[in-house]
Fold:
Amino acid sequence: MREFKTVSLADQVFEKLESDIIVGVYPRGEVLTELKLVENLGVSRTPIREALRRLEQERLIADSAKGSVVLGITVDDLIDIMEIRQSIEGLAAYHATKNITPDELEELRQINELQDFYYEKKDIERLRQMDDRFHVAIYEISKRNVICDTLRPLHRKTQRYRRQSIGDDQRLANSIAEHKAIFNAISEGKAELASQLITQHIENAKNHMIERFHYHG
Amino acid sequence: MREFKTVSLADQVFEKLESDIIVGVYPRGEVLTELKLVENLGVSRTPIREALRRLEQERLIADSAKGSVVLGITVDDLIDIMEIRQSIEGLAAYHATKNITPDELEELRQINELQDFYYEKKDIERLRQMDDRFHVAIYEISKRNVICDTLRPLHRKTQRYRRQSIGDDQRLANSIAEHKAIFNAISEGKAELASQLITQHIENAKNHMIERFHYHG
DNA sequence: ATTCGATTTTATGTATACAATTATACACCG
DNA sequence: CGGTGTATAATTGTATACATAAAATCGAAT
Structure:
């Protein structure tokens, strides 16, 4: 018998709003009032308020006297996020290599194969999902709660920019190759190498994003 | 005329519960029910729920079918936190050195002087507060929201262990001296040096904590 | 026409009422 | 005596009602 875990409305509202803000459905500066959200989402203020408080804690919105102002992720935020990831994602890869189980290794292998598959089909949206799964899998496999809790939201917040970055075929091909190299290092138990490779991978992604999104001169 | 910003009950409840959990008033494993908190804190369930959702997001509590289980900060969490801080607090110091204003420099100088003052008086609690203010000031002076938002909660979560760590007079003296060296580097505009010094400072603090709290052999 | 002030509107903050779910206790049956 | 099922109690999830504060509106006076 399968277990159906019912997700609370508050959680659903949070996930929807977080995603919508990150990808830009609600642009920076827009004011969200509880009443409007009640109408749009069809739930009462209670779960909406709980979601808003969490978004506020993530600095995706700011509370003002009247309504919540959407902040979203600016290019400056993006650069900071990538610098932070560059500094600590190596830690995650290191611990993941040390703590990975055979099942988890298999899962990571599958993600890599799916990447190849979707690359053939040029399915950008799925490829972004695979990027999500690859990185988040490493966070979780590390079994370090604090590292996981720190990196996961940061990675989610880059979604909008990653989606565009993947559009560059050269960068996409490089990224997939880098994932493979990281996977190989992890599967061979080379923790230091995995750490170095993922750090370089993030730096490459960062540089590509800066080149693409940050006006220069 | 002074401006009185009224803090909402929800915020007050969050701050009190967060602090109580971090310092161990509520031990790991204890179950907090909304009704109990209503009685203890004298406010209704609405603000309490909003606070609990935020604590959950910080993984200080975990939601269970009946009540919220206190997780708090374990020694393993502490080690992860210090490793992360070691990796990114240098970034904060670097940006802070680049972006500091004269007023902010003066504030930092005052914190350092107060440290000497309270060290003379051996006022451990105030010294911990000064440690808070010194580090948080650097986060904020960096003017990097993401860095700030990442480091501030991590630093808060070390409070309980720092309080004990400060009890070791040798470590305390070293820590204050390290703060001074960091301050000097910042005031002289040496961003790279400030970054290196604060990284070393965190590593020293981490090693001291590991030695003190992590059972060895 | 502009400014000041009162009134109204709008939105949030808080409390409470109601619904649904889950654990617990206890009786009944094997 | 142990297990199972039902009733009950406890607790959360959600909605709504009420209180309060801030902003907008409108009118009157200068």
User: Anything to note?
Assistant: The first helix of chain B runs from residue 9 to 23. The CA atoms of residues 21 and 72 of chain B lie 6 Å apart.
